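Service request form, structural biology core

Requester: graduate student, group of Dr. S.
Request type: structure prediction, single chain
Budget code: on file
Notes: please return the result as structure tokens.

Sequence provided:
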Amino acid sequence: MFPSILLGGLWHSTSVERFKGIIGLGAIVSEPDIPASERWGTNQGEKHYPLVRSLGGISLFDFNGFEPEVYSKKYPASSWGSFVPGHTKWTDTIWMEIDRSAVKENFISGEDLLKIWHEKEMYGHPIMPIIECAHIGELSTNKFKRVLLYEGNSKKYKRINIA
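Core staff response, request fulfilled:
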């Protein structure tokens, strides 16, 4: 079952360790100082980096109107289940809800991202159709609406304060 706490939101997720770096910088950046081996989709090299990364963006999940069963039937290859409720590689996952109105100038919707993928024939670059969207450029922590910690052991979300 999809967690209702994420429905309707625009989110970025990361590990607890990487979140500490985001707080230290005061922003999510498209090329954080972490090894490529620890980044999603880098094992096949730059020609196959995720679409959003290849555009210089930050990957976001848009769960506004998301219906998991319908979506999964339409896009069976989508890997959203690897991230929700928490990333399968991490015990705990940080979810940062992004204020839509605060990022609209640098935002590429999931629909527009899919159009770019098709128009530029960037088929070697993975994408999660419609629910994956992008923010181009640095995304300041002051654009966060709230931050949640998903505790993998207890399978619960807990709000955390970053101010």
